[in-house]
Design brief:
The structure is a homodimer.
Chain A (H helix, E strand, L loop, with lengths): L1 H4 L4 H19 L5 H12 L3 E2 H8 L3 H13 L3 E5 L7 E5 L1 H10 L7 H4 L4 H20 L5
Antiparallel strand pairs in A: 1-3, 2-3
The structure holds a DNA duplex.
Subcellular location (chains A, B): Cytoplasm
Pfam family, one (chains A, B): Staph_reg_Sar_Rot
Keywords (chains A, B): DNA-binding, Transcription, Transcription regulation
DNA sequence: TAATTTTTGATTGTAAACAATTAAATTTAT
DNA sequence: ATAAATTTAATTGTTTACAATCAAAAATTA
């Protein structure tokens, strides 16, 4: 494993995919994918966000978000409405079913609890802290976000 | 941010994508994507691996690897040869251009150095340690890997 | 041996992810 | 005011990523 072990990015790549997989089963009850769930979390926090604002929060661009939001619209969870003031902007509004889904979603965020079950609290909080630090470092070196 | 902040998986999701983006520019000189680069790393470490063995090392299944390997074959970096002993198995051999590419690849693993430049050595090693621990925890809860 | 199960990779279909480009509207500068 | 630059989202094309299924071969069991 000499080569792969020298790649500092590799564990992050695998961990991210395994986490998405861990969310898959719990999210089936909402018929959402993991990225769709994250978009819904944004909107439950603040309804009526512009596409660009969702993109800022999730570090995703319109090439990813536009089709994803159209799928959420097709599921009748959101409405996409072009702003009248600035017709470049598209606001994303939760529909009633979209708002209602939040109650079902409260259990999802504990999907990783089993994974961390036998972890020391200290390690969990340290990892969280270092991941946030890394996120900031990466963003400050990123052109896009 | 109340909702997103409660999602323990979110930072891993963003970090992984920002890391892939950070590798994009350095990897352009090899005309490789990040996942293709990881496959090549496996093969530079051990030539002639079966598809399933690459999948184990990278936690990827054949639905991802088969088309990726066909692209590497189209680039003349690998050959795919069905085993004579067990005709279900397909061995992946490096071509001469595939082997030669390794010399150009030595610089790639330092693509994140700038990101970690002002990090304390202690934090870096702690993060690496905790990520490997998390990887093991996730794998032990995974059906697939 | 014959039937069943497992292994292995390929295929199909859907959904992200993102670079590059386009189009339209707004803002800024001249 | 008008030209140039910026913002914003959509579009296009390529590449992952993965579930589900299939087919063939091999290994196991009856």
């Amino acid at each position: 494993m000499a080569n792969l072990e020298k790649e500092p990015g590799f564990p992050f790549y695998v961990v991210s995919r395994l986490i998405s997989q861990a969310y898959r089963e719990p999210l089936e009850s909402l018929s959402l994918t993991y990225p769709q769930y994250l978009v819904m979390l944004c909107l439950w926090e603040e309804d009526g966000l512009m596409v660009s604002q969702i993109g800022e929060r999730l570090s995703l661009d319109s090439g990813t978000l536009t089709p994803l939001l159209k799928r959420l619209e097709a599921m009748n969870l959101v409405k996409r409405e072009r702003s009248e003031k600035d017709e470049r902007k598209v606001g994303i509004q939760l529909t009633y079913p979209g708002k209602s889904l939040q109650s079902k979603a409260s259990l999802i965020s504990s999907s990783l609890d089993a994974v961390f079950a036998n972890w020391a609290e200290k390690d969990k909080s340290k990892l969280e802290q270092l991941m946030n630090k890394l996120l900031e470092s990466l963003k400050s070196h990123s052109q896009k976000f």
